[in-house]
Design a protein that fits this description.
heterodimer; A: alpha/beta; D-Maltodextrin-Binding Protein, domain 2; 2 domains; ten-stranded mixed β-sheet; B: mainly alpha; MetI-like fold; 0% strand; globular
Amino acid sequence: MRNSIFVLVILGAWITACAAPPQTLTLATTTSTYDTGLLDAIIPKFEAQSNARVKVIAVGTGQALKLGGDGNADVVLVHAREQEDAFVRAADGINRREVMYNDFVVVGAKEDPAKIADALNAADAFKKIALLQATFVSRGDNSGTQTKEKSIWATTNLTPTKEMLWYQSIGQGMSETLIFANEKRAYTLTDRGTWLALQNKLPNLALLVGGATLAENKDKTLLNPYGVIPVNPAKHPNVNAALAEKFAAWITSPETQKLIGDFGKDKFGQALFYPNAGR
Amino acid sequence: MDELFSGFIHALQLIFSLDATLTQIVALSLQVSGIALGISALMGVPFGAWLGLTRRRARGIIIALIYTGMGLPPVVVGLFVYLIFSQSGPFANLNWLFTPNAMIVAQVIIALPLVAGFTMAAVSGVDPELRQQLLALGATSAQATRAILREARTGVFVALAAGFGGIISEVGAVMLVGGNIAGSTRVLTTAIVLETRQGEFGRAMALGLILLAISFVINLGLLSLQGGVIRVKS
């Protein structure tokens, strides 16, 4: 009896020692996927399945794509369609796939001086803010969120510049921008996930445009698709292409897509991301 | 390597094109840190001198406090100043949060212990006999202190250089309390963070080089005020 246990222990140690050391995958992604806790919730499953360690670098979309374009990341998960297409056109990435989408909302001081709660859509709300010259905080960091903000301003035929004192471009992340807006009782555009995660720390702010949940968001221009793009090994031979492709296939697989769709329901009472791979 | 080189080229282009945005960022950096250093010098040099000369019992505790202050992490100072001026803080009415005023307050807190601490060390290093002699010769206490500061001027300029170097290069506090607003509270260090986060490494490098150049010129200026450069030459 004693001997057999001993043999088992030795066998166990031997198997463990023989198992290949985990490979490392560097994932460059946006702060929204990380700050909401989505990646922490799903990535351990990939690590266990693929015997891999995932290093997550959470930055703005601009820098995430730059990391990929420099061959410093193996795969990117970002949300700024035009920049993504440019990334693929430049042969820095290959085989972009849809993963999921979330949406943006406009938040602002509870008093809502520009009365944007009655606005038809985000563009209308922006017009009202500009008309009153109510303080608006911009991410100003070339992130996916700011790219969306700029595209909304473009439809209003207004181009805010830093000379306009009501328009404050602070060049910081979403959480910092929301905290700034809370202090200044200002308006800003945010992704719903970060808003929900931070909401109870923002007593002066209220969600004004975008509806209580993603399904209730009437302004379809506020939808925000995420894509996964493995970095092109032909251009950047040092990347771990096989593992990057494995990750892209895994995050678009039905099982992971279900995990993504369920994420946040227990904590916020609503999903933060809607999976849409292969659709 | 490419980024380093292109950053250098970019820096030269930016400097010689007198880019309006850049000029404004540089001007604000100098204004905020300059005023903060001025306030720190006005308070820190006399206080440091007094501390170097006094023999009071409390001296030890004050010195320990100053040495602690010399190592204050800027981000902690930033947090503290943020909380005082925040909407829920005691000085919310001033509306200083996210303005250069709050940045100056934070930088004074960072620079003051550096200026006071180094001044104290310099003054303590002057021969204690000097003060006795000056007083015996009929100098007032203030005159004697001024003479000792003149004697210790190398150390006093080191104190000013340390204070300035500490604040022109810090990013944690100005980011928190200034908010990095384009055109109103963006300084060199916060602009560097922003450009880096956007993957604009060339522009970030350029700003970094400009920051170094400014530091170098200011220190040269301090040295020549002190007479150091000239003395080395002769």
